[in-house]
Write a structure and sequence with these properties.
Elements lengths: L2 H17 L11 H4 L2 H7 L16 H8 L11 H18 L55 H11 L14 H13 L8 H6 L6 H5 L6 H13 L6 H17 L16
The structure holds 2-acetamido-2-deoxy-beta-D-glucopyranose (2 copies).
Keywords: Chitin-binding, Disulfide bond, Plant defense, Signal
Organism: Glycine max
Protein name: Glycoside hydrolase family 19 catalytic domain-containing protein
Length: 272
């Protein structure tokens, strides 16, 4: 990208933070035109290896079909912002489902989307104090799908928003590729207070409060990590999980030919 595009995008980011994201947008471009099947397959070089339990579960078409249920995903802001949002989403789900290791073929960041469900869950992830989304007897709300959706209080509202019974039939998230991608996009697009949505952070709609500024929670990829798992990973300099998330993002933004934007890390951010 040229430095003038970069400048334009920075201005757009500032401008949209003050006046709303719609204030500065490029024409509508479908997600499938921003990321082709061949680029997608280059990101996920090993997802269909026999070594990966999610072999054939995360095809390009399912990703594109799911994205159509979220019209603002990857279509907001200038071109670089859109590509950066898609890269951030794919990087975070790659960390959640990675099959990579330090000396893996093609490097650790070529192994996203290798798993579709948690292999040895520590529990059935039932928060029985949550009466709004009660657990169904015998069901496990363990990590499933690209974002490894977990807990009854996520399966319930995700299912309600997407049209499946998340409490009685959580298994569908590891059985239906389009629904699986939709649960990850639902998590990405939905604000769960006091956290902003990952989408609003990546496209410049998020405006930090005074508390957020005091906690170093300024916009950037690190803040998205904070939203997803900050309670366990943020505020810890050199955390290996955070660095793994960053490694995927750096590889994907490079393949997209866009910069990563500021605040990659959450090492000095307080969790929400
Ligand atoms: C689909 O879900 C059922 C439970 O409803 C489960 O027993 C089965 O293993 C799942 N199939 C796949 C392919 O994951
Ligand atoms: C904010 O970041 C700075 C370093 O950049 C650090 O010294 C400070 O402790 C951080 N504040 C919080 C609340 O974590």
């Amino acid at each position: 990208m040229t430095s003038s595009t970069l400048l334009l995008c920075s201005i757009a980011l500032l401008y949209s933070a003050s006046f709303g994201a719609e204030a500065w947008t490029s024409p509508y471009i479908p997600v499938s035109s921003l990321i082709s099947k061949s680029l997608y397959d280059k990101f996920f070089l090993h997802k269909d290896d026999t070594a990966c339990p999610a072999k054939d579960f995360y095809p390009y078409d399912a990703f594109i079909r799911a994205s159509k249920s979220f019209p603002a995903f990857g279509t907001t802001g200038c071109l670089a912002t859109r590509k950066r949002e898609i890269a951030a989403f794919l990087a975070q789900i790659s960390h959640e489902t990675t099959g990579g290791w330090a000396t893996a073929p093609d490097g650790p960041f070529a192994w996203g989307l290798c798993f579709k469900e948690e292999i040895s869950p520590q529990s059935n992830y039932c928060d029985s104090t949550n009466t709004q989304w009660p657990c169904f007897p015998g069901k496990s709300y363990k990590g499933r799908g690209p974002i490894q959706l977990s807990w009854n209080y996520n399966y319930g509202p995700a299912g309600k928003a997407l049209g499946f019974d998340g409490l009685r039939n959580p298994e569908i998230v590891a059985n239906n590729s389009v629904i699986a991608f939709k649960t990850a996009m639902w998590f990405w697009m939905t604000e769960q207070k006091p956290k902003p949505s990952c989408h609003n952070v990546m496209v410049g709609i998020y405006v930090p409060t005074e508390d957020d500024i005091a906690a170093n929670r300024t916009a950037g990829y690190g803040l998205v990590t904070n939203i997803i798992n900050g309670g366990l990973e943020c505020g810890i300099p050199g955390d290996a999980r955070v660095n793994d998330r960053i490694g995927f993002f750096e590889r994907y933004t490079k393949l997209f030919n866009v910069d990563t934007g500021p605040n990659l890390d959450c090492a000095y951010q307080k969790p929400f």
